[in-house]
Amino acid sequence: MKKTHISIILFTLLITACNKFDEDINITTNEPSQASGMQLIAQAQLSLPGLSSSPQGEFMAQYLAETQYVGVSLYPEESTSFYPWYQGPLADLQAVLTSEDLNANEGPIANQMAVAMILKSYYFWNLTDRWGDIPYTEALKGNENFTPVYDTQESIYLDLFEQLKQATQMMVSGDLSNDIIYGGNISKWEKFANSTRLLMALRLSEVNPALAQSEFNSALNDGVFTSNDDNFVFHHLAEANNENYWYDQVVNRNREWWALTEGLVSIMKPVDDPRLEIFGNPNRTQGQYIGLTFGEEDQIGTEEYSLLGDALYAQDASIHLMTYAQISFALAEAAHYGWISGDAELYYNQAIESSLEQWTGSSAAAQSFLAQPDIAFNQGNALEQIATQRWVHLFMFGYEAWSEWRRTGYPSNLVQPNGVAVPTRLAYPDNEVFNNEENYKQAVDRQFGGEDPIHGTLWWDQ
Question: Alpha-carbon Rg of the chain, whole angstroms?
Fold first, then answer.
């Protein structure tokens, strides 16, 4: 009997030890079992270049023309998915905002929440400006709601203003860790939130000037970008895992598929714009800057045109998503409207100077550049000048430039390939007809009379 009991005890101990051993070998002790708040925020930040690094965005603004597969750029009536944004960065940020277990060792929890709110608002602003009405208040609830309603763009804008204000109001002293944009500097995030509000307010200049002026001044008074040091920039790294999208396309895949458009070169070349040599390379046949007509389909040779500049497809190139120059152009426009006190010309000159510094590394050429008759500020032509120079400055952030073009109509030289005008929105994902039919149909009925056109008019696009 003693032998039997001893055998049972030994067997039990052996099984317990084996189970414990199995558990131990399946745990990586030097990695967390659950992502922390700042790790989720950093993961969401990794998607930021996707807002800019997209050939489709460059086609919408007509910065680049296709040299190889021209049909891709000809504005076909096709859907564009917003699912990756909801399933990726927005889901990560929502996880932070709903977490009950944020780690204060990564910085004040209030500041982690604030940054997540700011980034979430920034992503939603970009999405609604592309599609119009989108899922918002009922989105990001996981299996609690697979069929969220589409909120109106107007209601989204109004709520985003409040979300951004709330985020800055909840901030406390103390910086954050694992922040790959501002290095955890919470005061920079505060300026970014206010600058986002200011640019959002300007977007409403045609649909609701009174609200636009009110929100613009509110954001300005709270503190916006004051130099290029405040710019919202994503820095790629000289390594395969974190490299520039355009490096992968041009260098790794050997694709010389993108030339500067004739429209862009025609604005920059006659005034010896010093940014042109950054934006593109001289052509190989003459050493000249020659743009390709957007949508040109006949016998295109890459030797004849100015292809995308070396600096733009460097492996570690930076992506500027919001800049001091943008804020200065906005201030120039607001001064022109009489929304704020100040000299529109001064703000305009300031915008161009900071743009040259950002793109070329120096503002030394600003004085001579601004002295040229076609560049020097002209009060009688102020809006066109401001909008056109802003479009030049926003090179390679095509979707943002496209939004500004839709609002102002400038520059006025965008072409219509095969007679098709530049789209004024993106069509919803095809899947929504099946995945969220009732809410999808309500959205297209409300906005476009039952259609889902790429030339539909958004709420603010009056």
Answer: 25
CA atoms of 197 and 219, how far apart (whole Å): 6
Question: Residue 174 region, left (φ>0) first, then alpha (ψ -120 to 50), else beta?
Answer: left
DSSP designation for 311? G
- Burial class of residue 303, CB neighbours in 10 A (0-12, 13-18, 19+): exposed
**Which two tokens mark 355?**
């743009």
The three-state secondary structure class of 58 is helix
Q: Which of 153, 296, 312, 158 has the alpha carbon at shortest distance from 246? A: 312
Q: Please state the length of the chain.
A: 462
Mean pLDDT by 10 residues, the chain (462 residues): 44 45 47 79 97 93 95 90 97 97 96 98 98 98 95 98 98 96 98 98 98 98 98 97 96 96 98 98 96 89 94 97 98 98 97 98 96 96 98 98 98 95 97 96 97 97 88
Where in the chain are the domains? Answer: 53-239+316-448
**Class level of CATH domain 53-239+316-448:** mainly alpha
Cα distance between residue 235 and residue 246, in whole Å: 13
Structural element, H or E, at residue 135: strand 134-135
Structure tokens at 352: 């161009």
